[in-house]
Amino acid sequence: MQIQLNGTPHAVADNENVQGLIASLDLAGKSLAVAVNREVVPRHRWAEQLLRPDDCVDIVRAIGGG
Predict the structure, then answer these.
(1) Which of 1, 5, 24, 43 has the highest CB neighbour count under 10 A?
(2) Domain segments of the chain: what residues?
(3) Structure pTM?
(4) Domain 2-61 has CATH 3.50.30.40
């Protein structure tokens, strides 16, 4: 199925969850914030948050610097 990932079409498996998406992007263990359809999904809910066709997913990665 297709979702929008940071504004770009992205294919994911049916019944994919946020945790699986993060793993497939090699971002597991990183400092991230995830929103699905403009609602922030807390990290403890990533495994239960299923993605649906045409969901808009935004992933923001925290990067330190000075």
Answers:
(1) 5
(2) 2-61
(3) 0.91
(4) no
3-state secondary structure of 26: coil
Burial label, 34 (beta-carbon count in 10 A; 0-12, 13-18, 19+): buried
How many residues belong to the chain? Answer: 66
Residue pLDDT, tens place only, 20-60: 999 999 999 999 999 999 999 999 999 999 999 999 999 99
Structure tokens at 25: 């992007």
Q: What integer best gives the mean pLDDT of the chain? A: 95
Output the pLDDT for position 66: 62
